[in-house]
Design brief:
With 328 residues, the chain is of the alpha/beta class. Helices cover 41% and strands 13% of the residues. The chain folds into two domains: 24-141 and 304-316, Aspartate/ornithine carbamoyltransferase (Rossmann fold), CATH 3.40.50.1370; 145-300, Rossmann fold (3-Layer(aba) Sandwich), CATH 3.40.50. It is found in: Mitochondrion matrix.
Length: 328
Amino acid sequence: MGKAALDRVNLKGRSFLTLKDFNAEEIKHILWVSADLKNRIKHRGEYVPLLQGKSIAMIFEKRSTRTRMSTETGFSLLGGHPCFLTHQDIHLGVNESTTDTARVLSGLADIVLARVYSHSSLEHLDKDASIPIINGLSDLYHPIQILADLLTLQEHYGSLKGLTLAWIGDGNNVLHSFMMSLAKLGVNLKVATPKGYEPDANVTQEAQLLSKQFGTKLQFLTDPMEAARDSSVLVTDTWVSMGQEEEKKRRLKDFHGYQITMQTGSVAAPDWTFLHCLPRKAEEVDDEVFYSPRSLVFTEAENRKWTIMGLMVCILTDYKPRIPKLKF
């Protein structure tokens, strides 16, 4: 059943705004293609120009290191041409309506990756574009980050099913994307946030339905140590996102006690690991954990490249991986 389902997966022409819209087999297929490209290009030294003759428009309302580098170098490595557009080049809905921008880009590029403030901007682009749109980050979701995290954990543990991930920090867009994907892959989720920093209520409601549907555990807590207890993976993110700088002093006070340390890990599963999507601040996780062998953050950062490549190949081609299917 699993093999047949994976063989039937066809993502060509699909937009990728949220993992909410993708089922387990589709997520697994993207990760399989990503792992295959990593094997062929990084480990075997092959040239795989699957996107030769194609172009991507990269709209960045918010700056980024990993999203820009992974997409730009990844698309080029696959033989395509990336076009980087900052807010100075394109200001959605200001100099030109988002509708007109979507239609213009549809005639000039094969795909768009947009890193925006408002998720509604992505939905507007997707509605009016005739080419696929990828969410490079929005205020509500960050799905391409989760693809990298899932591949990193699959590589490290050999499979995902049965793992328990503890999120310790802000109820933000990265957490929302975990909430829309982990249950589908058999991963339990424990969330610890300070009061007032819980994830979006609508996302929480949908995540609870997914957890019930797939038989996984989903817990919402305020105690970081309770979240870490017996967990396989400890995850955090910035406490002060772009656009929240004026709230920094209050946020640092509210998140006191949420720093991940070896003491946090002392109650986790014996083989616990640590993830952070970067950039990292010392108040979120101390150096002892961040630079320890338990930290997978730099593999995680590299996998941003292989997973965005895998996603773009899935959306733009009919490519079939050569390596055996991954165990999930």
